[in-house]
Amino acid sequence: GAFEMQWSGSDPDGDNLTYTLYVDKIDGKQTTPQDFNNISDTSIQVQLDPNNIYYWRVNSHDNNGNSTYSQVRSFRIE
Description:
The structure is a single chain. The protein is mostly beta strands. The protein has strands at residues 2-6, 18-24, 43-47, 52-61, 67-69, 73-77. It contains no helices and six strands. Strands 2, 4, 5 and 6 form a four-stranded antiparallel beta sheet that branches. The protein has a two-stranded antiparallel sheet with strand order 1-3. Strand 4 (52-61) and strand 5 form a beta hairpin. The chain is elongated and about 40 Å long.
């Protein structure tokens, strides 16, 4: 079903950030779909299968080529 992933991000230099979302059933580090790249918002609707544990992380990047990965977190879809 549709599930809204939300996160927060801020840049120490105040630059505009874009985000790449990684969400999968393995380790949160698998190749991500094209539409999960360059997200300018801090949330996105994703389609997830019920009765699964998912791992996810977000990569935030600014215009100066700085990028930061969040910690991988897990959650279960009932």
